[in-house]
Specification:
Length: 468
Amino acid sequence: MENVPELRRKIEEEQRRASTASSVFSSVNSQSSLAGSFDENSMSDRERADKLEREKRELAERFEREKKRLEKELERKTTELQRTQDDLRRMATRANSAEEKFLELKNAAGQGRKGSGYSNEPPKPVPKPRAISTGSIDGSQAQVQQLKTELLEMRMLYTTTIEDYDILGPIFDGGEEGLVLRAQCKKKGLPFPDRVYAMKVLTNYFKSQTATEARVQFQNEYEILCNLPPHPNIIHMYAFFFDRANPDVSPEFKRVGRNVRTMSLFLLMAEHPMSMKEQLDILTGGQGPKPGKVVQWVKELLSGLCFLHSHQIVHRDLKLDNLLVDDNGRVVISDFGKAIILEDNMKVSYNHGFSAGGNTAHLAPEILNAKPGPKKYLNYSKQPVWAAGVLAYELAGHKNPFQSGTIDQRSYGVQDVPPLKYTYSTHSKFCQSLDSQLGSIVRAMIQAEPSDRPTLQDCLRRVSPIAS
């Protein structure tokens, strides 16, 4: 993003150019008026007057075109300047508010117990600490520590670059969809040099692209997450920044497009041990997932989806690869590159060129069967319910029942889908019975007609008792 003085200088330059063009137009208009006083019987005077009149019209047309162009450019620059000023105001407000709270709680904690000090150990990143009563001395100190963390992370958000991190190696290489690396902060003054992040790198493949243009291109990857409050089943994003993917920093950047020094978006997120797919590959090769754990995973998945639904967010790329497992074995929904924010009715216009979702294997029939066109809509209100029902099979160790090709995902009856009764292991002796109530709930979730499916809240309400 261009800085404010540079934008002001460009706007003033455009205004001077418009003023010069206006002066030229006035001069030609004056000459044209003089031409009208020439002798009408003189052919040379008439020709000169006609010529001046033509030049006047041409110049007037050029002037109007240039004026419109300059007005449009001025409007664009003014909008960008306003956006920059708004960003700066928001940053200042956030920093001042956090600083005031920090000092207030620090003073309160100091009065309650002098010389107590604060731990240098950062709090667990996920989940965020619960609100604690300020009447407690220990509670006040915990809030002080949390605010210190938020202030440090805010500083990292606005000042960090890729050179501030040691790249420890790749976690996932998704080609053009992105690269995920393990990264450790090494710059003094930035949060927690001992913390290891999952750094997602999204490149734009255009060397000349600015951070502002990259921000627009990748806004789904950070705007949704940075505006969401913390939730234990949603990936936690600490910060994001724009920089050039410099291969001198890490050899992993050498494969980034044709121009290796391209503007990229870096997302700093909580690192989790493995994906759910990796977890299940291990479990199904042994004794299989435990029935109680399967029910708990389904509950956690539904809890995360209910949370997203309450914020009018639909993920649209649910699959085992995008479900992570945290240190406590909980499901964490990640990768919001295909996510969208909808209106309260959870509908979106379905025009030609609009992608219905990133993973068709987990898209409900009403989404797959929809045809784009004028006044056409996609209704995602029950899509996450269907996707969670299909994922319940996979969380139990089975394959997606619609991927084998024996069941038409676009047109089927629920009786065509085998019931979910057992966990799966490659060793059949380890397969275990699942709670029949879970099978009944999942069967309702994968009904072909959206109106026949329960809501996410209903599903969570029914699953919670059998998961406890």
